[in-house]
């Protein structure tokens, strides 16, 4: 039996297969592709199957960035519309499950090694509580996870598209500037790779440096590490807004068994996330401070968490792991 798992993002897509035999199980290396290099998801899968010399997949599970509607999804940050029936018609796939990418990340929590978590806020861990998984990458993902009888059940959501709410005068100025460009400003517009670039542009303009080149997200981080003023201001704003968004999400979905910050950005800027500003903005909830204060917050440093979760779901679909 051959199982295939995929974690698809707006920037990159990662896959891993598992061959289960009577006597042994073989797990492949992780295969990565640039999502933008392919006109469709089926084209990407076809390339993967050729590269791995796979003739048939018995069970597949793919975590995808967008609202999954039964057996189809239109991706948020890619021009792809995916339908299971069309995938199976074109490719040798017997059983296919589509889940939201942050559902996959939530499933991957229990597959993580202990050293893949950094505690940002200790809180008071309650093993009987719910979980919450959030994360900024190409977009901003949110997955509420409820617990029942010791088992965790991730739910899909598009919580990253909630409207950004300023917390101080600087953020009021930022929102006013953003409203000159967009009518609706979501948290994802700021808490994402492109969001960090937007924050950098804003601080360049505030500093009167309109002629300075606009940097990509990774370049903003590198410049901030060198102490470049606009980059430091952008990354500081990013971490502050990240903290307040996580706190807002925690009010919607109390998670005393832990809030887990996944996504591609958090782990790369761990030094900044571990500073006091993140926790300060996370707790800035006035009368509700004591509510969020109870919830532990962990930063996930394993970027394969979504792939681990998708593979776990594939194993469940194949009957190799007990379903919750």
Give an overview of the whole structure.
By secondary structure, the protein is an alpha/beta fold. It has two domains: 2-107 and 305-317, ATPase, nucleotide binding domain (Nucleotidyltransferase, domain 5); 113-301, Hexokinase, domain 1. Helices cover 35% and strands 24% of the residues. The chain has eleven helices and 15 strands. The protein has helices at 41-51, 84-90, 101-107, 169-179, 193-206, 217-225, 229-252, 270-273, 276-282, 289-293, 305-317, and strands at 2-8, 12-20, 25-27, 31-34, 57-64, 68-69, 72-74, 81-83, 93-100, 117-121, 131-136, 140-148, 151-154, 259-262, 297-300. The strands form three sheets. Strands 1, 2, 3, 4, 5 and 9 form a six-stranded mixed β-sheet that branches. Strands 10-15-14-11-12-13 form a six-stranded mixed β-sheet, sandwiched between helices. The protein has a three-stranded antiparallel β-sheet with strand order 6-7-8. β12 (140-148) and β13 (151-154) form a beta hairpin. The longest helix is centred in the last third of the chain and has 24 residues, at 229-252. Keywords: Kinase, Transferase. One of its GO terms (cellular component) is cytosol. Belongs to the bacterial glucokinase family.
How many distinct domains? 2
Classification by helices and strands: alpha/beta
Uncertain runs are: none
- Percent strand equals 15-25%
Rounded mean pLDDT score? 94
Any chance you could write out the topology, listing elements then pairs?
Layout: E1 2-8, E2 12-20, E3 25-27, E4 31-34, H1 41-51, E5 57-64, E6 68-69, E7 72-74, E8 81-83, H2 84-90, E9 93-100, H3 101-107, E10 117-121, E11 131-136, E12 140-148, E13 151-154, H4 169-179, H5 193-206, H6 217-225, H7 229-252, E14 259-262, H8 270-273, H9 276-282, H10 289-293, E15 297-300, H11 305-317
Parallel strand pairs: 1-5, 5-9, 11-14, 14-15
Antiparallel strand pairs: 1-2, 2-3, 2-4, 6-7, 7-8, 10-15, 11-12, 12-13
Keywords: Kinase, Transferase
InterPro entries: ATPase_NBD, Bacterial_glucokinase, Glucokinase
Pfam families: Glucokinase (PF02685)
């Amino acid at each position: 039996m051959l199982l295939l798992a995929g974690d698809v993002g707006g920037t990159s897509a990662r896959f891993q297969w598992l061959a289960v035999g009577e006597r042994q199980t073989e797990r492949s290396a992780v295969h990565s592709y640039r999502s933008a290099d392919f006109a469709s998801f089926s084209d990407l899968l076809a390339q993967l199957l050729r590269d791995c010399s796979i003739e048939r997949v018995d069970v597949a599970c793919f975590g995808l960035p967008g609202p999954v509607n039964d057996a189809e999804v239109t991706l948020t940050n890619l021009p792809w519309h995916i339908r299971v029936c069309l995938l199976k018609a074109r490719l040798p796939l017997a059983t296919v499950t589509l889940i939201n990418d942050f559902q996959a990340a939530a499933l991957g929590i229990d597959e993580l090694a202990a050293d893949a978590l950094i505690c940002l806020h200790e809180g008071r861990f309650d093993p009987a509580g719910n979980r919450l998984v959030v994360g900024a990458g190409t977009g901003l993902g949110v997955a509420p996870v409820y617990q029942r009888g010791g088992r965790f059940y991730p739910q899909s959501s598009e919580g990253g598209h909630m409207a950004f709410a300023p917390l101080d005068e600087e953020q009021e100025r930022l929102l006013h500037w953003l409203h000159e460009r967009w009518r609706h400003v979501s948290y994802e517009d700021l808490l994402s790779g492109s969001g960090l670039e937007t924050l950098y542009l804003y601080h360049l303009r505030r500093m009167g440096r309109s002629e300075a080149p606009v940097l990509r997200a990774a370049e903003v981080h590198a410049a901030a590490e060198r102490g470049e003023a606009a980059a430091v201001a952008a990354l500081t704003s990013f971490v502050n807004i990240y903290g307040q968004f996580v706190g807002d999400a925690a009010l919607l979905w109390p998670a005393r068994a832990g809030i887990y910050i996944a996504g591609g950005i958090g782990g790369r800027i761990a030094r900044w996330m571990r500073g006091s500003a993140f926790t300060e903005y996370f707790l800035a909830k006035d009368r509700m401070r004591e509510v969020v204060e109870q919830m532990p917050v962990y930063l996930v440093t394993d970027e394969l968490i979504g792939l681990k979760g998708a593979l776990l779901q594939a194993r469940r679909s194949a009957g190799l792991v007990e379903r919750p």
